[in-house]
Each structure stands twice: as C-alpha cells, then as structure tokens.
Amino acid sequence: MLGRTTTLEVRTAEGVSFKIPIASPCSRCLALAVDLGMIMGLTILATFVLNILQSMASALPGIGRILVDFGQGTAIIVQFIIATFYGIVLEWLWSGQTLGKRLLRLRVIDERGLSLSFKQIAIRNIFRLLDMLPSTFYLIGGTSCLFTAKCQRTGDIAAGTLVIREVNVPIPSCSELLEEGENSFASAPHLEARLRQRISPEEARIALDAITRRDELKPESRLLLFARLADHFRTLSEFPDEITVGLSDEQYVRNVVDTLFRRASI
Amino acid sequence: MILDLDKFIAKEQPYWDELSALLQNYDESGDYQQPLEEAKRFYYLYQRTSADLVKLNTFAGEVETTRYIERIVAKAYSRLHESGAGKVPFRPLQWLRRTFPATVRRHWRAFIISSGAFLVGASFGVGALAVDYDQKNQFIPPQFPHLREKPSKRVEREEKQDFDAFQGRHAFSSQLMTHNAKVTALAMVSGFLWGIFTLAIILDNGKLLGLVSYDYLLDGQGEFLTAWLLPHGSVEIPAILLGGQAGLVIAHTMFGWGTNLRLRQRFARVRGDLLTLIAGASLMLIWAGIVESFLSQYHAPNFYPWKIGFGALQLTSLILYLALSGRKKSQTRLVA
Q1: Among the three residues A165, A190, A212, which one is the final residue of a domain in this structure?
Q2: Is the reported ipTM for this assembly greater than 0.85?
Q3: Per-residue pLDDT at A116
Q4: Using CB atoms and an 8 Å cut-off, which of residues 145-204 of chain B contact chain A?
Q5: Chain B partners of A115 at a C-beta cutoff of 8 Å?
Q6: How does DSSP assign B49-109, residue by residue?
C-alpha cells in the first residue's frame, strides 16, 4: 500500500500527457465475484445440458454406454474450458473487459496505456492459477494488488497490464458555474484587463478549481481557502470599494474566474 | 493568456464528439478494420483533441473539461498505438514445425535444470525407500491408493482383469488431461516466486516416480512398470519438465541476471516464449491423457512388448523433434 498511486500518467510521443484512473482492489473484487458467478452459472448450465444428452443417449441400444462415458469425459473438459477460457475469450473480444469488468466499468489495458495483445491476455489469465492460491482465496493476487503501486496482481505484472476505471465524464459548461450578469467587476474593464494581464494560468487554474469543487470542501476549509485566494487576487488588481463592497470572499473569486474565463479570449 | 472556456468548448466539442463516436463504434464492433479515409480522419481528430488537451492544461486548467478530454485522448491513444501483435496470423503448422521446438531449444539451460531437479527428486524417492521401505505409504499421496499396495499383488490383479475400452475411459482421460495441465501451468506460474515452488513441484513429481519405480523393480515387476508408464510417461513427463522450464524462465526474468532492463521489459521479452512452452506442454498432455486411458491401462502380458516398443518409439521421436525440428540447415550440419 506504500507508494500507492491512483492514476496512470501517460506521456505520449507528441508531448501530450494524460491520466487514467486505476481501479481499486474493492471494485476488482466485485468484478471478480460477478465473473466467478458467471463461470459457475455457465458450468452448471453446460453440465445440465450434458446430463440431459447423456440420459437420452443411455437409452440407445449398443452405443448408449459409450456415449454416456463420452458425455462424462466431455463434461470434465467443458468445465475446464469454461474456467480457463472465460477470461481469455471475453477480454479478447471486448478489448480487456469481462462481464464483471463491464458491469463495474473496469478495463484491462497495457501498463503504458496501450491496448492489449493476445499474449498479454493469455498470460494474465494463466497466472490466475497462482493469484488464486491458496485454494481459491486469491491471497497471492490480493496481497500483490495491495502492495504494488498500480494495484497489480502477479498476472498483471507478468503480462504488463493493469486494470483501469472507465469513467464517463459529462462535458462541463462554465455557464452553469458563472451566472450571467452577476460580475460587478465588469463595470471596471481597465482593472479587469490588468487582472488578466497579471494573473498566471496556474493561478487561474486554482481559482477555477476552487469554484468547481467548492461543494467538496468542509465549510470552514471553504471559508479559509476563498479568503486566502481573494486576498491574493486583491493584490494583483485593486478594484474600488464601490465595486467590492458587500462582496464575500467567495463571490470575489467567482468574479475573478468570470473575468478570466468568460470575458477574455486568446 | 487565459482561455475563453465556453467559446473554446463550443468550438471544439463537435470534434471531441466525433472522436468519441468513432471510439464507441470501434468498441462495439470488436476487431473492425477501418478504411484509409476513416483512419486518416481518426488520426486527425486524435491530434486535434490532444492539442486541445495541451491548450487546456496550459491556458485554462479547468479540471472537469480536462478530465473529459483526457478520457477521450487516452482511449484514442490506446487504439492508435496498439501493439498489433494480435494481428499476426497464427500458422499452426509453422508453430509446430519450428516455433515450439526452437523455443524449447532457446531456453535449454532452464530445461536442463528442470530435468536435473526431476532426477534429484527421483533419486530422493529411490534413496528414501532404500533406507526405510516401511515408510513407503508416508511418501505416497492419498490420491494414489493403488500405489500403496504391494506391486506383485496389483500386477496379478490387473493382469486378470478384462479391459473394457469404454468403461469410464473418456472420463478418466479427461480428468488426467485437465489435472496434468493444471499441474504443468502451476509449475510455470510458480516461477514468479523466484522459482522455488517450480522446483518443489518438479522435485515432488520426480520423487513419486523414483519411489514407484524402485518399489516395482524391487518386487521384480520391471516389465509391468515399463509397459505401464512408458507409453504415456514418455510424453507426460517431458511435458511437466517443459512446465518447469517455463517456470525457470520466469524465475530468471524475476531475478534479472545479466541485464539492466526493468521487470516489465524483461517480461515483455519472454512473454511469447512462455505461451509457446505452455501451449506445447498442454498439447503433449492431451495426447498423454488419451494414451494413458486407452493404452497404458491395458495390462495383458502378451501386449507388453508392443506397449514398450510404442513408448520407446514415441520418446525417441519426441527427443528428435525437440532437438532437430525447425533447425536451419547449417545448424543441423554443425550438430551432425
């Protein structure tokens, strides 16, 4: 758990860097439970079908006994195939997803952010034999997941893969954050221009983040944060009292963000 | 400079949506090969969205929009930079004729160590029984009760029994195949724990063979033993040794001796070989399971020479196949 990271940072050859969220051990456990349930269900179904066929075949004179024996052998092979190839086939067909992963919105990817090759899929699924030890308790895989930075079981390490969370992020709109007509700074365009000139992109990012994530903060932390931000922005461009009178620190920062992001353009 | 975020989103969103729709389409259609024009458009959209991401990071830094574009760029990057290894067509005949035996030969040191461990295990089995025969039952696992009885008694019983080719043979054969495949795969993946458990599995298998062989030879049942074990053992034991070989290749990868590559890079180098070894071993075990069920258990004394001959021929063929198949002519001449 030491040095655990929650995101995979990829830097492409074009110089673009982006982050992919890594799946937590908990969500992986849930996906595994769904998959184990599916494997069990498929095995029961296949055994049931084969049993019906065997009972029908046993009535045949002469070859009935042979067919029953053949059916018993086939049942063992089918169970083995379902348990071994469930993960391999689905991850290959669904680009790194099994049914459990699909439901939990998880996906296996190459640890450099690339898509998977068949070799990687096969190796990570063969290594499940080791990960599930002792018996089927997944102690080795679970321990490996907890103690590796990218939450990788031994199969993931050998195959060079990791499991990520697929999050559907809706496209945000600034209009929702900054309501029209509320910015009192607009009455002093020359001071707004000075503010835009003096503020750095990093400072602008902090201000926008603070507005976007205000609901995630505790009330006292929010007050403290906006007070510090407002104090900082006041030093960059001082607006006259008639504009700022009665403005809370948060509204001050909101006006700064509105000035920076809505009224400016490159 | 600060970005006018609303205007920026309004201008670029159609491109992001188009890229998202293409990615969604690829996800749903699996192994879809897009036409050239579509591929070009996809690449353009990827580059444009990547540039948008850089612009956002530099001039705006708004978290939600950045996160939204990151998801699209990450998916497109993954799609665009896939390794392509899966696109190489699989040629079974070439794989059998060249890839598999060449892979076994390439890691010959691991095979020698695996075989050596098996022999050490067998010697231990022989030695343990030679020192204290009364401890025999302590060494034989409970799943093999027929190995605990006196060999001559078993031989007498088995030789009198009628052989029914269909009485439970398919089920027995299937059980053998799946069990042995699991043991072999476990011997391979245990290599991840620095090879300790791989060697333990191989030693244990060797020990059992040593015990049984010594027991039967001591009781004067050498011919029965050979006729019983050679037909399937000549394939099954090498298959388990291949599993051990693959495990030792993994152990070597874990240690990383003689290279300064990172673990990820070391595994990337041997991944194909590991799959080849385990696939080859599995095929051998399927064949061994069939032979063990339908031939090895047929204990008619007049049939022993045929069984031994079959086993010997099979073993010789396997050795020649693994040693020579797929070699380049110059290499073969050098060996000769």
Answers
A1: A165
A2: no
A3: 84
A4: 166-175, 177-178, 181-182, 185-186, 188-190, 192-193
A5: 78-79, 81-83
A6: HHHHHHHIIIII--HHHHHHHHHHHHHHHHHHT---GGGSPP-HHHIIIIIHHHHHHHTHH
